[in-house]
Amino acid sequence: MVEHGEIRVVHRGGSKLTSRDPVFSSDSRFLLCASGECVKVFSTSTEECIHDLRGHTELVTGVLLRPSNHLQVYSCSADGTVRLWDFTDGILIKTYVIGYPIYSIYASANHEGVIFLVTPAQSDKRSEMFQLVAVQLPQSGDQLVEARELSAVLSDVSSNPAAIVFGRGGEYIASANGLQLEVYFFKKQKAYRFPLKEDNKKGGKNTFMCVACHPKDDCIATGHEDGKIRLWRNFNHKKEYTYSTLHWHHSAVSSLCFTPEGTNLLSGGIESVLVQWRYNQESQRDFLPRLGAAITHIAVSPDGALFCTSHSDNKITIIQSCVKVSAVIQGLVKGESVRTDLMMDPRSKSLVLNGKPGHLQFYSLQRDKLLYNLDIVQQEYIHESGLQQFEVVKAAFNASGNWLATVEERKQKAAELELNLKLWAYDEQTQSFVLNTTISAPHEAQITAMCFCHAADSQTTMLASTSKDGHFKAWQLAAQAHTEDEGPSWSCDFVGAYHDLVPECCCFSADGSLLAVSFQEVVTVWSPASWELLTTLSQPPGAIRDLCFGRLSCSKYLLGTSANNLLCCWNLLTCSLEWSTSMDVSLLLADPLSENMAAFCCQAGCTDLFVFKPSEPRPLFSRKEVCSGKVTRAVFAPREEMLESCEESSQWLNHSQLYFLTQYMDLMTFTTKAEEDRLMASSKQLVIDDSVAMTPFYLLLGKHRQQENQDSLGGMSAERTPLPQGSVAIRELLQTPAHVLPSTSYLCSMFVQSLLISVTDTREENKHTEEEMESEKEEEDSEGEMESSTRPKESLESEATESAAPALTKAQARELRRVKKLDHSWLAGLLDS
Amino acid sequence: MASFKPTKIQVYPKLGEKVTQDTLYWKNYKAPVQIKEFGAITNIDFSPVAPHNFAVTAFTRVHIYGPFSQEPVKTFTRFKDTAYSGRFRSDGQLFVAGCEDSVVRLFDVSGKVALRMFKGHTKAVHVTDFTSDRYQILTGSDDYTCRLWDIPNATELTTYQEHTDYIRCGVTSKLNRDLFITGSYDHTLKVFDARADKSVMTMDHGQPVESLLLYPSEGLLISAGGRYVKVWDLLKGGQPLVSLKNHHKTVTCLCLSSNGQRLLSASLDRHVKVYNTTNYKVVHNFDYAASILSLALAPDDESIVVGMTNGILSIKHRKSLEESKEISGQQKRRPSYRVFVKGKNYVPKQDDYLVSKPVKQHLAKYDKQLKKFNVSKALDTALERKPEITVAVIKELDRRGTLKNALAGRDEQGLSHLLNFLIGNMVDPRFAPVLVTAADMILDIYQSVIGQSPVVDRQLLRLQELLEREIDYQQDLVEVLGMLDTMFASSLPRKEVPCQHCSKGGIYPSKKKVQFYHAAK
């Protein structure tokens, strides 16, 4: 039986990928981006995440390739440290402790051993003043280095990382803040300031948004809030500077970037169009439109072949030279609020919530990866601030995942609300949802709740929706009697109301025989078969907030929470209140796989969690202060494999896992100790020393290869290919024409001898690998080492051949006999080569 | 880089009847041929043998028309008074007709003069028919009697005087030469067996019986009288099966479609209704200009012939297969060049590398303009299309927040074009929500130029009238709705709901209410 520790609340995936601009590795095979508290290394060709560089304890605020070694990367974080990583292997090399929160990091090849950081102005930490400081990184062998010698370079800079940039070869640094551009020349130790007026005559706003420097030329490009781009020249004079203006963007330019050769300038903004300007021929522009969402950052690979744009919807797009989108790295999209509840797709077991405007996203919790976006609205998205867009506000799955119901709405300023209820059927062939029925204006006012009948054996599927217009409606799938060519579609089956009260929530019982609809403080229970009002339950005062039927053995209970801090449990057999308790429940939800229910209570700015069975008075699990703020969205996700836990307090996590969203839109979950251990173990297994991108395909084949490897190891020889080819005897045997070969008996002894060498090899190899491990650790710091993964093999070979051919022992003779019987698998190796 | 998503054209529910297989079948007739007769057409009968001529009894004569001729191929005029009930014998050789002067005349179809005259009735004879053995004639008369006559001898065989009012319809069995059924204005149907001297079965229709029809199997009998059509099971001793009340005036004529699956009934309310004979639901409906007295279907439903009180004979012929195909064929767009189909059926060989070309997205004209953000042009191009499309584009422009730009800056012609569209579609409930916003904006934009163009001013006035009228209609509808609510509230028994604390449940009267809501909208 597995030992179980306490239950912990942990962050689980879905962090923002686009808070800082991504960085290409020098060979453009990897893309590094700051993601929450770690740096993620993605493959640019396969979109897979290869490494998580974990170590920072707060948000990572900057990622930067080390100018002197392109296999190492600096990352800075708000926790006041700069860390140096080897990103190909995912190893932390050094930690420099700065001591102040860092907002961005810069370096230049011209300034060796110095990094430039943006920290809060030291005088007082509260203020919004930031300064650029230079830090001389101390040379020392230790892992943890204190680097507290800061020298201020520029004061009063912007905390926006795009607002500071190194100029040609690191000769100068340009910083924009507010309405002022400042250029600091390192040689002259002199700064020039170029202020702009707040508004120009035509009402444009001149505030600087971003800065980029030409790599070969003395030219600084700045982006402005009104969509203009200015190209500054001659700025090493205080008075005689000039600038030219480019204008295409209709709103603020959020990112600018020169290509490495300086032939093109890339710009992007909220229009989600990547604009490519020819340097010195600015009238020629190329556009790459409809990239999906507002562009926040642009990066270019060192060879200029790949562009990469970060978008406001947590997406990174990799573009092949401004022509074609080659890869999309999509993170979990979290807007300001989750309008639809968190849901689980019963088929893919993925988390479903509203993502991009007008889309529903399917997010795999196990793999921390966005599976796909389902376009609900199916309209061209207009990128313009202040425009009212259609939003997906409600969604529901039925029990089998065959049907998905979505509600989209658009609230105009003056005119009436636009509402659409859409029902999607799962298509087995295309493996996606296909629109079945669109009901425009299903209700006259906003829909407050929607749920499917979850009965497994029911003949027809039923959907209930409640609306602020005072009605609730039941929708049913019905075949159209008249036309045979069309499939069944959904239509309204029943409209119900109760005393002109507004229905707030609805819930079907587990067997689908009852529908509970709450009308403010009254709960009405209806029979979906006859649409009779069976009973009403109420516990005034206080409107009902949540309704939940019990499941399995507790299916006779109906639970409700009221705005008046009351959690009530009604017994439906007696139609009376079974128990009630006074607590301010912000969210009540039922585990679909067990009787358990979870209640998030908000108390004094913190949220407590209670897990209980409706039939038992004592909660199974309770945890005070799970997080700060109110929890309004949570979901029980079924586990892929059941946990076996005997401890009572963690038994409720056996079947399913509880995920919730905090006030700050962090996705959290509860884990047990054993689960974490298992996760750690599995992640260690997955570490791959190869530089090949880790794709599912690779895992499949790689595993196979590994197994083959092990088999051959256990069987006879260590090396797969080097053995036959490396041996002179074998090579001779294969290269000589058959008719001039000596007799087979002669060849046999030669061949056997070549095999004998490898037997000793196997033994020594074990020793060698151990040595290698140690030496590798020592060599980690060495900067010249390029291919640490392939080197050991080579050295191993050479050593193996050196220590060859000792005398035969008895054991070896036995081994030899066995070898003779073995299949000559080396032939396969030969065929491969 | 996602592709441009074209404007979504909303599919509106089709107003009016749903298109069913039946609708398609019964709609598949050509425009009617109309022939004016001298008086009300009381009977139409198709000859059972090819070429299926039909006899039309109107006023004092009987015309026989060929299947496709508009002129009668033959006319029987030797009636002294109004003729009734001209019928063919089952071999199509002989023809019998009753007359107001109580004489029944038998004709050879090729001759002119009556072969036989059956005299014996004392009043007008409205019913004549041949029995299935072809040698006897059944007649029914206003003198309350029905008689059987022998054709070779021209003698009366039997007389039944059981009805107590005019006998206006009758039918003979096609399977048994002795059985026949008569219907009378005394509300009864009587089944007679010529071997017995009395009626063997009597059924009460409840209304004066106008028409009778036997199913081909002769197990079921259909009678029409008053507003009712009733179906009787003869094998169960005349038990009523169904009573249909779908007409709002007297049903005058009944007819079965060729395969016996559909029943047609014609009525004075100018409608012909088609029933499904398995569930007796109305599946289709024809409208005619005047009250219908007679109706007949050609074998294989090749044509529907209807005679009306104003003497107009309407003949609808079924569209031939090629014709109906031609129409559907025209709708299909075919590639104009052979090059489009070239290589379509080429099957790639084993080692062939298939290069797939990216599919080019075809956009409608207005979508192309929308893609370029040319909002005014997009609206202009959409105005030339169907109103559904125009409304969808207006809605899309509104969503983009550029509807005002698209509407503004128009000259007199452009504005009157727009206003014309508004006048045409503003009050359509499907489009009203979108068009009201657009109209609002137009008035805002162009209020300063009102009075400068007489064309625009006239259109604005028309729009105003239209809106005022519409508002009145809506007012009336709300009133009706209120009345209905009261009626339902009073008619529905209030049901007590088990309730522990308070409040009785005011439940809506389930589905009916819902339907009324929809109907009202």
From TrEMBL, chain A:
Residues in the signal sequence: none
Q: Which GO terms describe its molecular function?
A: RNA binding
Q: Where is the C2H2-type domain?
A: 33-56
Q: Where is the composition biased (Basic and acidic residues)?
A: 761-770
Query: Can you say where in the cell this protein is located?
Result: Nucleus, Nucleolus
Region labeled Disordered — which residues?
761-813
InterPro entries, per the entry:
Beta-prop_WDR75_2nd, Quinoprotein_ADH-like_sf, WD40/YVTN_repeat-like_dom_sf, WD40_repeat_CS, WD40_repeat_dom_sf, WD40_rpt, WDR75, Znf_C2H2_type
Does the entry feature the keyword Magnesium, yes or no? no
Q: Which GO terms describe its cellular component?
A: small-subunit processome
Q: Where is the composition biased (Acidic residues)?
A: 771-786
Q: Record's Pfam families?
A: Beta-prop_WDR75_1st, Beta-prop_WDR75_2nd
Tell me the Gene Ontology biological-process terms attached to this UniProt entry. Answer: positive regulation of rRNA processing; positive regulation of transcription by RNA polymerase I; rRNA processing
Asked if the Swiss-Prot or TrEMBL record annotates the protein with the keyword Transcription, the reply is yes
In this chain the WD repeats are located at 53-95, 246-287
Q: Which UniProt keywords apply?
A: Nucleus, Repeat, Ribosome biogenesis, rRNA processing, Transcription, WD repeat
Report the protein name in the record: WD repeat domain 75
Q: Which organism is it from?
A: Dicentrarchus labrax (European seabass)
From TrEMBL, chain B:
For whether the record's keyword set contains Ion transport, the answer is: no
Instruction: Please give an example of a GO cellular component term from this record.
Output: nucleolus
Q: Which Pfam families match?
A: UTP15_C (PF09384), WD40 (PF00400)
Compartments where located: Nucleus, Nucleolus
WD repeat ranges, renumbered to this chain: 118-159, 244-285
- Keywords for this protein: Nucleus, Repeat, rRNA processing, WD repeat
Q: Which residues form the U3 small nucleolar RNA-associated protein 15 C-terminal domain?
A: 345-486
Q: What is its main location?
A: nucleus
- Coiled coil (residue ranges): none
Annotated GO biological process: positive regulation of transcription by RNA polymerase I; rRNA processing
Question: Any idea what job this protein has?
Answer: Ribosome biogenesis factor. Involved in nucleolar processing of pre-18S ribosomal RNA. Required for optimal pre-ribosomal RNA transcription by RNA polymerase I. Part of the small subunit (SSU) processome, first precursor of the small eukaryotic ribosomal subunit. During the assembly of the SSU processome in the nucleolus, many ribosome biogenesis factors, an RNA chaperone and ribosomal proteins associate with the nascent pre-rRNA and work in concert to generate RNA folding, modifications, rearrangements and cleavage as well as targeted degradation of pre-ribosomal RNA by the RNA exosome.
Question: PANTHER family, alphabetically?
Answer: U3 SMALL NUCLEOLAR RNA-ASSOCIATED PROTEIN 15 HOMOLOG (PTHR19924:SF26), UTP15 U3 SMALL NUCLEOLAR RNA-ASSOCIATED PROTEIN 15 FAMILY MEMBER (PTHR19924)
The record describes its quaternary structure and partners as:
Part of the small subunit (SSU) processome, composed of more than 70 proteins and the RNA chaperone small nucleolar RNA (snoRNA) U3. May be a component of the proposed t-UTP subcomplex of the ribosomal small subunit (SSU) processome.
In its UniProt entry, what is this protein called? U3 small nucleolar RNA-associated protein 15 homolog
Annotated organism of origin: Dicentrarchus labrax (European seabass)
